Amino acid sequence: MQGQAVHQDKESFFWADRLRNIATVLVVAIHIASPIAHTYQDINTWWWWAGNWWNSLARPAVPLFVMLSGYLLLSKDYELGVFLKKRFSRIVIPALFWMCVYMLYSYIAKGDPATFWDAFKKIVKGPVHYHLWFIYLIIGLYLIYPILRPWAKTASERDILYFLTLCAIGTWGYKLLAEYAQISIGIYFELASNNAGYFVLGYYLGNKSASDDEKPSIPWRFTRSQLSRISFALVILGTVSTAMLTYWSSMAKGHNFTMYYDYLTPNVSISAIGWFILVKTAFNKRPLLDFEKELAAASFGIYFVHVLVIDWWGQCGYWHSKFHPMKGIPILILLVTIMSFW
Q1: Pair 189, 166: CB distance under 8 Å
Q2: pLDDT tens across 258-316, in order?
Q3: Which CA distances in Å does 209 have to 36, 100, 280, 287?
Q4: Total domain count for the chain?
Q5: pTM of the entire structure?
């Protein structure tokens, strides 16, 4: 990359907000579709397949948020103290508030946590509620940002590709060898594992430009139109692979096998890369509409509150058992997103 800067013109960020909005809706979709895809026993029914397809489509949500954070943060220089203070006020304080909300919710429903000490241990150990694990992930990435940024600023494209290759081995390789060959890789990949790969990948893809752009910084060999078609194919390939691998594995094992829903699998990564490039190349021409700006600004709040909205609809009886999920899931995604937004 050798210090290549991200264009800071207004237009360059249209796609970033649109990608954030897509990822927000996909997060809602995961938490609505997962109960069917993960637990419904008869996988040879349209009931299960509806959950499986929606869950497979939505799985890139978390990688997309991590990639977008990597692009936006690693492309800028922040003084260490300013960065940590800014992230603390924007992320940690709201997160602590919502952790308290969900612990109160859990206490009213189940009497847990029973004491303030139990509550403190839940916050430290994490996650307080099933969807809040992402907070711990993003805080960890923020803590290594001051280390990654100076490296990314001076790294060549070859250096970054080497790092991403190590990340693929340290995530995909570990999972697949352990599951199918019962082999554990003895090498400790340390930094080059888990979601650090997505963080750097977002920076890399965000700075790559189509060959026919006016000012290509680090150009692809493809035009913008070609990239749009290729990335759309990657979304389809990743989604179909996730759905079919989950089905075949579940059939072979005789029970719901959900490893291919994992965010750190090749199939989900392919889909996430496709979404990222597709939105960057195809969704950046028109200025943002007002509702797009407002939805992007509210994405963090939607993430925190949407589980309460899902539970509320469940208490009202409007859940998968009321309507076939083929139509019930998209309806619930729309209702939950709108209510969480407002």
Answers
A1: yes
A2: 899 999 999 999 999 999 999 999 988 888 889 999 999 999 999 999 999 998 888 77
A3: 39, 43, 9, 19
A4: 1
A5: 0.90
Range of the domain at 162: 10-341
Residue 41 lies in a domain: yes
Strands 208-209, 218-219: parallel, antiparallel or unpaired by DSSP?
parallel
The span from the CA of 340 to the CA of 342, in Å, is 6
Structure tokens at 325: 């999920």
- 70 neighbors 137 (Cβ within 8 angstroms): no
Instruction: Kindly state whether residue 5 falls inside one of the protein's structural domains.
Output: no
**pLDDT band for position 215 (cuts 50, 70, 90):** low
pLDDT, position 8: 43
Q: Is residue 4 part of a domain?
A: no
Q: How confident is the model at residue 228 (pLDDT cuts 50, 70, 90)?
A: very high
- Contact of 277 with 19, CB cutoff 8 Å: no
pLDDT at 216: 58
E strand map for the chain? 208-209, 218-219
Does any domain span residue 2? no
Full 3-state SS string of 116-185: HHHHHHHHHHCCCCHHHHHHHHHHHHHHHHHHHHHHHHHCCHHHHHHHHHHHHHHHHHHHHHHHHCCCCC
Q: Kindly state the tokens that stand for 135.
A: 């907070």
**Is residue 222 classed as helix, strand or coil in its secondary structure?**
coil
